């Protein structure tokens, strides 16, 4: 029969082994949680990146096809820029073809709009983009395309897609179509899961958010730039070809903390049950030794 001292040793050893097992088990479950979410983040980003890449490529292809299909009409409008009827006709065709269509113009080699009613300013960055596109045309590139990014026009954040259009006289200008980013935001929403936020950031200015699931950064209810702490949390990212965008998954920082609290509650509950059982066992042993003295 165990003495009181021996029973204390046994109970103490039991509690120590229980604590060690619970610590190891809790750490293992934390590692499994992190590994699962890392795999999930990579899957989300890769799946969404493929969808966005196809979406952007399809948009570029359709703008090129539109420019080819209605090239004569576009050229006629450039030659007669006050022809409101032709302009309205093209506007209708573009709205029928693209549900997120915003506006269009035709730009010359210097980046200047050739249509007088174009109401959106072509900034320095956009002019450089136009210049790069013209250099592709001059070089005879078979895969023309501009590097797409968000233009922060007040009240109408948008991105532009360019296509060459032949004008009478042998010159080539740029058919310049602007789109709202709603369809791209919808793609982000379709892939996004609770506890994870998919964001398109500017590759050339990485902390800058371009598009989120709610829309362009003018619709965000948070600062438009990622903090250093948020950038350190990013573990999955992918570039979107043909754009200046990088897709990232920003996990909710409270997700891991909440899981850790849940695991600790479980561990303490189990330890409490073992502690209670050990106390009851110790009490019974001491009562038995009192009845049966040596």
Helices, strands, pairings?
Layout: H1 4-69, H2 71-79, H3 84-97, E1 101-107, H4 124-138, E2 150-151, E3 158-166, E4 172-179, H5 182-191, E5 196-202, E6 205-212, E7 215-216, H6 228-233, E8 237-240, E9 245-251, H7 253-291
Helix pairs in contact: 1-5, 1-7
How would you describe this protein?
The chain contains seven helices and nine strands; from the N terminus they run H-H-H-E-H-E-E-E-H-E-E-E-H-E-E-H. Strand 5 (196-202) and strand 6 form a beta hairpin. It has a five-stranded antiparallel β-sheet. A four-stranded antiparallel β-sheet has the order 1-4-3-2, with helices on both faces. It is of the alpha+beta class. It starts with a helix and ends with a helix. Helix 1 packs antiparallel against helix 5 (182-191) and helix 1 runs antiparallel to helix 7 (253-291). The mean pLDDT is 83. Helices cover 54% and strands 18% of the residues.
